[in-house]
Amino acid sequence: MAVYGNNPSFLISLFAFFIFSSHTHFDICNACESEVEDETPFAYLEGTGRGPSKWGQLNPLWQACEKGKLQSPIDFPDQRVQVVRDLGELKRDYNPAHATIQNRGHDVTVRWKEDAGKIIINGIDFKLLRCHWHSPSEHTFNGTRYNLELHVIHMSSNGKIAVIGITYKYGPPDPFLAKLSRHISSIGKEEKDIGIVNPDDIKFGSRKYYRYIGSLTTPPCTEGVIWTIVEEVRTVSREQVQALRDAVDDGFEANARPTQQLGGRPILLYDPHVKDGSK
């Protein structure tokens, strides 16, 4: 891994370039900034005519899925990761709030209906909106794919999207999923009120995180998304992962998009312990 411990101006200008370069897409694509609410028009299995390689052809608003240059998910190869300390700790300020749960077609989604707080990136507030799960994980690490990935979606006042991703391997149960288990088992296609849900129950476990600019991993594959992937791989039980798949019951064994080309995009790894050019 390359280390850039003492060059904050380099990092700021680098990420400002990528965020600015995708700004036009936000301006012309207001209708497709958010993920689709009904996921049944697309599929995850190739050969169905609706698989990932065909997403961009299924809807004129989904062309970024096929033609975009900043697509997600990606692989994190060690040789492309730049270790830094200048990004600073991930700041989150969450609140317990009323939420709903829903089977959107390919995933289980929890949506907060009141102010559930925010994260702060580069001084900008991103309001917490919802979270959902993919199995197996969508992002990979040196080609390794884990058993589950949670996406926590936030949006700024001007429509920019920031997603926190947390990966899981089989082991002890995940506490957040454990609190939702009875709701997951009775989920339906309609939104169901599940009362107060505390987003602080989503445990990160590490201050280290990866940062890159990408896209939504489901149609419309909107680009310019600020991705924060927690470095620590947490644990989830096999039963919890199976419960998520059983709740959706879409006929597929997985809901993970294949990794996309990284191109020239930088991948940064925030490490508060980096000092004087050494990890």
From TrEMBL:
Signal peptide positions on this chain: 1-26
Q: Which Pfam families match?
A: Carb_anhydrase
Q: What class of enzyme is it?
A: lyase
Which GO MF term does the entry hold, naming one? zinc ion binding
EC number of this enzyme: 4.2.1.1
What sequence ranges are listed for the domain Alpha-carbonic anhydrase? Answer: 40-271
Tell me the GO BP annotations in alphabetical order: one-carbon metabolic process
Catalytic reaction equation(s): hydrogencarbonate + H(+) = CO2 + H2O
Cofactor(s) needed:
Zn(2+)
Keyword check for Flavoprotein: no
Which InterPro entries does this entry report, sorted A to Z? Alpha_CA_prokaryot-like, CA_dom, CA_dom_sf, Carbonic_anhydrase_a-class
**Metal-binding keyword on record:** yes
Q: Which SMART domains match?
A: Carb_anhydrase
Which UniProt keywords are listed?
Glycoprotein, Lyase, Metal-binding, Signal, Zinc
Return the protein name. Answer: carbonic anhydrase
What does the record give as the organism's lineage? Eukaryota, Viridiplantae, Streptophyta, Embryophyta, Tracheophyta
